[in-house]
Amino acid sequence: MDLYVTNGGNIIINSDVQITGAATGSNQNVNLQANNQGSITFAKDFSTPGDLAISQVTGFTLGNSVTDTMLSVLGPNGLTFDANTPITLGGNSTLRVAAGKDITVNGSINGGFKLTLDSTGDITLANVGNNTALGAITLAGQASSLTFTGTTLKSAGLSTNGNTVQGPISLGTPTTQVIN
Questions:
Q1: Contact (Cβ atoms closer than 8 angstroms) between residue 151 and residue 176
Q2: What are the tens digits of pLDDT across the range 27-63?
Q3: Rounded distance, CA 24 to CA 135, Å?
Q4: Which residues 6+ apart lie within 8 Å of 45 measured at CB?
């Protein structure tokens, strides 16, 4: 599925979306683009057995303040947000990928809500809470590693939820670090 918006348009999905099919087919891949003039919002659950590519957007909002929201990307490439895509949590949210796949957020992630990370691969987060501190960050799976690479790490808590991180946990060298 390819969805491109031009001239300042935003992509807003207010209903659950579940794309079905085998993860090996390219028809399950989702490409969303807003020509660097609009944002994308997933207010409800979004699931694909393929890959998700979000590019050329001014921001990405996940969740709503009423129900928990899950972004589930089960394709072979895991889930990556580039440094130019700031993420805002609009409610308690889960990022989920297929077994052994990575979650990488190279930009900022903000919002006063809980973030659950469901990956047995590597998890890398850049600037966390540099504008608005996150609620608790929780691991839902046995990640291979957990790395914070940005200059800011602000969260109401950090929990492995009883899961083992198989490799290193690195808090990097944030200049601002607050974990309550």
A1: yes
A2: 688 989 888 889 999 999 999 999 999 988 999 999 9
A3: 35
A4: 16, 17, 18, 69, 70, 71, 72
Residue type for position 77: N
Q: How many whole angstroms from its chain centre is CA 155?
A: 15
CA dihedral 123, 80, 173, 153 (to 10 degrees): -80
The beta-strand segments (E) located in 7-89 are 11-13, 17-18, 30-33, 39-42, 46-48, 52-55, 59-62, 69-73, 79-81, 87-89
| Terminal CA-CA length for the chain | 41
Degrees, nearest 5: CA angle 22-75-136: 130
Q: CB under 8 Å, gap of 24 or more: what pairs does 139-142 form?
A: 139/163, 139/165, 140/94, 140/96, 140/116, 141/117, 142/166
